[in-house]
Structure formats: structure tokens, C-alpha cells
Amino acid sequence: MATKNAINSKATVCTSVASDSGTATPASEVLTISGGTNVTTSGTGSTITINASGEAAACAFRAYLSASAMDVTGNGTRYDIICNVEQFDVGSDYNATTGVFTAPSDGKYVLGGVFTGDNDASATEIEIFLNVNAGTYWRVFTGAWDNLVIPSTDYCALPFSLLLDLDSSDTVAFSVEESGGGGDTCDVWANDTTFYGYQII
Q: Is this model's pTM higher than 0.85 or not?
């Protein structure tokens, strides 16, 4: 009868968990790493340090508006939407009080969301913007209200997203502008209005 090779269930990979400094001490003769990009060795070689410099940290968030914002646009007023309830925020880079995302490092980011609201002012046009660094507005959606509303209603839900090249500490917020109406009587609806973002590289 052929004998199957047994797996050594007692093999040891590491004798300790990495400390906050990113340094771990592996078991003797288990692991060998040569120094290179973002990797250094020190001492007798029993200590291995991996430097995460240059690596993109985990970054992702999603938040929603918990209470409808009433009478905020309709006649050309641009309204900053603050999605104030975080569903998750990996990296803690989104501020639910201000509605502002801050890029933790240089990289490429996807920012997006869903605007849900109505047209009480009989506005003719709606535009959605991503506001970078409180001054540069990227128009991510524009359209005529009559072509957007759900039949037999006066509201719509508009998804949007944009790939942005951001530097560390750049900020991004989310705003809407309805125009052509008789006044600022249009509303932004709660729960279905969301804002999200994540880093891809």
C-alpha cells in the first residue's frame, strides 16, 4: 500500500505577533527575507522590519442622510449635503458632522453616492457636484427634471460617481443645485441619499 505524506501539524511560523512598530521576531530558521523596497533587516537577522511607507492604507466609507433637508434649493441655490450617519468608515477619513471626506494619502479615489429628492419648486434643471478642497466643483450629473422624475410622481433618485486623483489632505464634499423654479422649496430626502468613497491605488 502506498504511504501518503503526512503534514507536519506542529510546524511553527512565528513566535510573536507584530507590535505597533511593525516589528516581529520569527522563530529560528523559519523565515529568511533579504532587504529590499520597504523591507529591512536588522541585528543578527532574527528581527525583520517591514516598512509600509508607500503602501496605500485601507480607506473606505459610506454614509447616509438621516433627516430630510427641506426647502434648500430650487431657484439656483447650491446646497451642501451632509450625510450624517456613517454605515462604515475604514480609516476614519469621513467627517459625519461636516460631510467632508479627507484623503489620507496621495492616490486615486472613487467618490460617489445617490441623491434622492423632489421638485416642489417646479425647477427645470438639477445638477450634482463633488466639491474638492472647498472651491473646485466637479459636475457629476446634470439633467432636465422632466426627463428624470418617476412617472406620476415629483421625485427622483440619481446615482453618481467619479474617479479623482487626490493628494494627501485633499477634501471632497457633495452638493446639489436645482434651478429654474419659483423658489428654494425643493427637498433632499433622508435615508436614500448617500455618499461613499474608497481608494483604489
A: no
Catalogue all structural domains in the chain, each as residue range(s) with its CATH number. 1-55 (no CATH), 60-199 (2.60.120.40)
Would you state the pLDDT for residue 144?
85
DSSP letters, the chain, are -PPPPPP-TT---BSS---TTSEE-BPTTT-----BTTEEEETTTTEEEE--TTPPPP-EEEEE-SS-EEEEESSS-EEEE---EEEEEETS-EETTTTEEE-SSSEEEEEEEEEEEE-TT--SEEEEEEEETTTEEEEEEEEEGGGTSPTTSSEEEEEEEEEEEE-TT-EEEEEEEEESSSSS-EEE-SSS-EEEEEE--
∠97-101-103 over CA atoms, to 5°? Answer: 145
pLDDT at 62 over 90: yes
